[in-house]
Amino acid sequence: MTNLQVSYYTFEPQLKLCVLCFSIFPENTEIKKRPVIYWWIGEGLVAHTRDKTAEQVGENIFEELTQKGMIKPVYKNKSPMVTSYVMHPWIRLMLIFVARKAGFFDFDGTGKPTADCPVSRRACLVLPTKRIAGASSLRQEELPRVHLPVPGDRQQNASSSSGRDDVITFFNVNQEYLHVNPGWFSKQKKLVVLQLGRWQNSDTHHIEVDSAEFLNGLREKKQLKYLSLCGISRITDLPDSIAKLTNLKILDLRACHNLEKLPSTIKALKKVTHLDVSECYLLEHMPKGLGSLSNLEVLKGFVIGNSTSKDPCQLKELVELKRLRKLSINVGSDAVVAEEDLNQLQQFETLRVLTIRWGGVVHSTPKESTRLRRAATMTMVSLSMPQNLQKLDLQCFPHNVTPNWLRSRHLAKLERLYLKGGKLSSLHYRAGETWNVKCLRLKFLKYMEMDWSDLQDAFPNLVYVEKIQCDNLKSFPCDKDGVWVNNKGNVRTNTL
């Protein structure tokens, strides 16, 4: 432990503060990279530079912590992409000791972060330790490996933080059923980070709030920079008072499955750089005015409005977003797709990552399927691709013919191509046209037919291929997990 502390104290101040955030996560859990970077951005631990976004600076911090042995990347299914990390238990214990001593967080005697924060200005929601009926000891898996010394050996008092109104970070570590006291919440005017949603790597992690009434208190959170409600059910809408969050940079609403609409006042969030409403399947359209969010870098879950939408935001409005790097689009079963709208995509010069999902293919009614085919036909003919794309993810494409825009000459800089579900039957290959793609993922493509030798001719730079439930791709030399790796060019990366 002493040697680990000596190593920690050699770090630069920024790295010290960033790594202390890992002290609150349970032992041996996979820590997803994105929520941690968002947290750092919210607290101002990382910020954009002249040539890098704040998110890219956060990526570099993860790389540095990996090089110094503080965290270990998790490579899943031999993939070169890294989205999660783990921390050795002894390193975690060292960080708990340092974080407690520095007042970065408050912990109980077993090293568990607490909601009561008599010293720290950061509070956590943590499940209470459960006891076995009739037993006096903790469950074996909950026993701490080391009881940490408490500087000053003070007794934590729940009431000492109950009246506190200067908390800057409120982080849900593992609570699944939330009750947020509206009275307490309204007093927290200095919050900059509110992570109530899930940070866990598994999408099956469920969080439920007993009442969304506390969200009305958002009008008081003028300092808030990061708000996550990711994966929380029973939130049907957001209050108009969200417009008061004038300093908000990141709004994460991913997988809020009961969310039905976004307020029109969201266009007032002029400092927002990240807006994620992906997997919010009840959203029928996006509010008009998103094109005025000039700082937006990441927009996930953009819905092309249906015929009943009064005045939806159209895709062509987003052309005004000169900093947009990542965009995901949902083409619903009743989408109204205009040709001039789809042609605008080629003007997204800063866009690097694009995801398009055509919805309602499997479970749609005959009437919905007709509308979807009409929308899909428009995308087949009129869709254009941004010239600087590095990643393209197409999901549930409802045509079997390869569209003209899905050709290498339109996507010269593409490095990652993901195809998931849908009716696509082949990747049409013309002699002399080769792709620069290094990572190819093919999932649930039961109609796809292609010979391995043809694939190699079309994709000569492949490093990684993943094939999951594509029954007709029998010639692919993938292992039992559906993976093929080019050992000669196998490169691990955190940013692919």
Element pattern in H and E = HHEHHEEHEHEEHEEEEEEEEHEHEEEHEE
**N-to-C terminal Cα separation, in Å?**
34 Å
The number of helices is 10
Low-confidence stretches are: 131-162, 360-365, 490-496
Radius of gyration from CA coordinates = 24 Å
Mean pLDDT: 85
Number of strands: 20
Largest sheet: 14 strands, mixed
Keywords: Plant defense, Repeat
Protein name: NB-ARC domain-containing protein
Domain Disease resistance R13L4/SHOC-2-like LRR: 191-425
Organism: Aquilegia coerulea (Rocky mountain columbine)
SSE topology:
Blueprint: H1 2-8, H2 13-20, E1 31-32, H3 33-43, H4 54-67, E2 72-73, E3 84-86, H5 89-101, E4 122-125, H6 158-162, E5 169-172, E6 177-178, H7 182-187, E7 193-195, E8 207-209, E9 226-228, E10 232-233, E11 250-252, E12 274-276, E13 298-304, E14 326-331, H8 339-343, E15 353-358, H9 366-382, E16 391-397, E17 416-422, E18 439-443, H10 452-458, E19 464-468, E20 483-485
Parallel strand pairs: 4-5, 5-7, 6-8, 7-9, 8-10, 9-11, 11-12, 12-13, 13-14, 14-15, 15-16, 16-17, 17-18, 18-19
Antiparallel strand pairs: 1-3, 2-3, 19-20
Helix pairs in contact: 3-4
Description of the structure:
α3 (33-43) crosses α4 (54-67). 19% of the residues lie in helices and 16% in strands. The model is unreliable at 131-162, 360-365 and 490-496 (pLDDT under 50). The protein has 10 helices and 20 strands. A 14-stranded mixed β-sheet has the order 4-5-7-9-11-12-13-14-15-16-17-18-19-20. Strands 1-3-2 form a 3-stranded antiparallel β-sheet. The chain has 496 residues and is of the alpha/beta class. The chain has a domain at 395-495. The chain has helices at residues 2-8, 13-20, 33-43, 54-67, 89-101, 158-162, 182-187, 339-343, 366-382, 452-458, and strands at residues 31-32, 72-73, 84-86, 122-125, 169-172, 177-178, 193-195, 207-209, 226-228, 232-233, 250-252, 274-276, 298-304, 326-331, 353-358, 391-397, 416-422, 439-443, 464-468, 483-485. The two termini are 34 Å apart.
